[in-house]
Amino acid sequence: MRPQKILIIRLSAIGDILLATPLIRALRAHFPQARLDFVVKSDFAEILCHHPAINNLHELNPAGGWPELQRLGRSLREIRYDVIFDIHKNFRSRYLARAAKPQRIFWHRKHVFWRWLLVKTKINLMRNAPPIYQRYLEAAATLGVHHVGSLADGRWLELFWSEKKNQEADEALLARHWQPALPLIGFAPGAGFFTKRWPPEYFGQLATSFIRQGHQVAVLGGTPDLDLASSIEKNIAPEQKTYLINLAGRLSLLSSAAVIKRCRLLVANDSGLMHVAEAVGTPLIAIFGSTTRELGFFPQLPTSRVAENLGLYCRPCSHLGHAQCPAGHFRCMKEILPQQIAATAKEMLANSLFSA
To answer: What pTM was computed for the model?
Structure first.
């Protein structure tokens, strides 16, 4: 089967959509003449709006509720897709896939039962489970798409933006005392859940260490991360504050990506900006708390490092995260000390592999 019209559905969020870019690349390489479209929530459309392999980007506005979902379903049905890849597999995506009435619908394996066993009982049947991006690619194997667009071809996640976003990034940095001659370190202290966030006071201590070594630090994130960024600032001595550039809540995602591209290193939690760093090729220290490698979201590049507390039986306590530590101690994050991250960063920055 050589489909002429292909649709991918992945509604959210930042990391999940970026992890779909190897599938986009693989499908485009295998079916160069096909129409390749993508459905995404309007909040995340920016991630793919400049992607050269996508013909049409369909946006779902969640605020529109059921009428909006029906409207989009009717619109998709009019296009008459041959193949749909539903790589989200929730109620909305399943509805849209079926409402479009394609010839074939493909899903990826979510390993829901294995994941439940791991989280709830610590019975681990997922040691050999592939990472999420490979599960997305496996969904296309029936169409003859094999091992294309993965790390095997020397390429990875992809993110595209306009020159305007580069200008916005530079203007935001310069407005906050950026000194381009100094190495820039990025921090991404946010994450969707509390148990995935390294303590902001630790980020503050780490920022102090970097500043003392002659670096500037840029704090990145969205509006929900404003309090975290403020907490980091409070841990910085007054004479060092000009070396801390707080950009939280001030930039779009793509402008933030442009800033991350300018960084020598990003220190991030398990979050969307962690995946952005891999997409733009910036060396990364990813700090994992309540989630583990088996769940499929670990960074993959040789220029990335993972910091995690391997000595805890309670990990993973969730495949997403919690609003508070279920065990009450939060050792998964509290026992990863700033000195440990600083030592890893020092080694990475001294290694020619990570040099700018």
So the answer is: 0.95
